[in-house]
Amino acid sequence: MVLVLGIAGSPRKGGNTELIVENALKSAREAGAETDLLLLSENRVEPCRACNACAATGECVIKDDFMKVFNRMAMADGIIMASPSYFESMTPQMKALIDRTGYYNSVARGRTTFDGKVAGAISVARRTGLANVWTQQLLFILSQKMIVPGITSYANAVGSAPGDVLNDEEGMRTSSDLGKAIAELAIRLKE
Ligand SMILES: Cc1cc2nc3c(=O)[nH]c(=O)nc-3n(C[C@H](O)[C@H](O)[C@H](O)COP(=O)(O)O)c2cc1C
0.85 cut: is pTM over it? Predict the structure, then answer.
């Protein structure tokens, strides 16, 4: 059995990002995966302090939820990273997670934690920044040596108020395609 983890990078609980990730995870389950939903609205991950302590000790000095989140990511065979657009960029919550994860994986884990995992990105916006947020997350995914499956279209969704994305037919379809593609590739790689 493969495990697909969806990370919703919005600080707003019950918002559009959470809904679109749940939609992708539903497809992953239908394709035969187990799923886990990780909300950054419920986990405190502070920005990296660049203290380099993890290089010496293998531990991060910041006492927050990062190690718990990192371990959930490390357990997964597939990872979906999703963030709303905040002034054309990912949220500070997702950026903090990316910085902490990428640095810790490089310095304390020899950049091996995510090798060969399958991953993809989703962006959400009222109107602007979709491509930028999607690309920002994707570049991180590639930097961690994860494998990105091809999909029919970018998994981006539009919405402003919580629940709006449910009416974005294309956003729902492309996020669903992504969840399915990640589950199917992760299953094939594990066979
Ligand atoms: C601080 C902040 C900045 C935002 N900046 C943008 C933006 O640059 N472009 C845009 O289209 N929407 C922007 N939005 C709207 C959100 O991307 C949109 O409401 C999205 O659906 C929020 O996702 P969520 O419900 O998961 O939090 C911004 C919202 C906030 C709170």
Answer: yes
